[in-house]
């Protein structure tokens, strides 16, 4: 193992617009190539190991945060786009002294022109924050504890500091990059996944993250040609396909990559990335074929590698070398495509648009471009720490408002987002509130069975790899797949063969969800389901005779448990009628609690937030 140096890039805004200078120091001169003694609990090996090993780039205490929603300006609000903000409107927004960049950016299309936002209660806001930042709904204890801060900024900071926040981002990047251990060496997947952790814990600035990711074996091994790799990087970090001239030009820098296979001492034959030497330094120190590996659309950017005895002694095919032999300086050299993209304004705009879409579910940066400008400035002022954008968006008023009013407004930012929770979030929420016995899945290893099949060379190391992952192995050394089966039917836990996850509401989904909820709640009282003590108020016996008061206590208990709120007046009014309908009589508390559990967990309120 080497001791890799850390590096960062200076950033600033010029007086005429966005200007970014990328100045990367060398990684070092050695690379991590040893296989023996690898730890199956930490199998990551790759370029991600070389960065983010120093102190965090910021302390995480970002400026701005939550602003109290201001009153709208005294003006006739617009009813259709485009919105014009006159001098009075601009002066009003300036007078508000808003600290959050999203709030500052949206003001001239919101309060400044007389539009109002929708108030949100603490329970709604907490539920929304947990679903987006932690990946599941909050428990009653979390509602009353973590979300009980007077300032929402403190709640957001607390959630950003959790491991679950990082896991949500890692799962998202697994979807974007289509992790699949049959296509890419699983060690490289773990390395990229850990690089994501470093970015979302503040150890790696966003331009450096992009530079490493755009030339990471997880990306380059996934695609067959240099042009395909260039297009994938463009779509990932610039949110658009390249023009043909851009594709062919950037492909010259990706021409150093070749797909291949390698014999691994623990994993058997694994797919991995190789580098070739199409552009080498000749004996006279000149490039043998400089044009084949030189980009000219973004300045003169030349990429050459110099072969040495590592290739000659490795037994590889002539002209190529396994990427595991690459030095840190060579990794830095091949990361030129990402560094080029990071010099473009659109790169930073795409970064903040990603976060806006993640939290709001619509493209606010395009609809109100001042928001995008404010967030790009904010990101650069905070050392390109991507957490700053998450903090700004999650504490903004366009996000922390009620979803009520959808039919009453032409403008999306005058009401809060309403989104469908991911299958993993739905399952994890049920697990946490009911204690249901259900396994999990690991986004890093899409085919864990490959490492447990004796016919495929399974050994103690590969078993330990799965046993140390998020996959669950039972006492018979078999993989527990109940969670995966449910999640994949609903669009989650993708194997990423060609496409990734999907989100839909369908008859099949509804049937699968109701069947699982019936298994958890046991509404027919067939002797299964979770313990009745979870579904009943504390101290209430399962055999307690059902009365209207008992029914109301049960509904209140489960509404708090699953929805994090008190029952509405309408719901309370309906309880007595439901209690009267309970059969066979005489009904007990348990015979009412289990159908109530089924009704609440299968409702739209569990699927949408």
TrEMBL record:
Q: Which domain of life is it from?
A: Bacteria
A Pfam family the protein falls into: PSCyt2
Using the record's annotation, list all stretches that form the DUF1549 domain.
Answer: 117-210
Q: Which InterPro entries match?
A: DUF1549 (IPR011444)
The name this protein carries in UniProt is: DUF1549 domain-containing protein
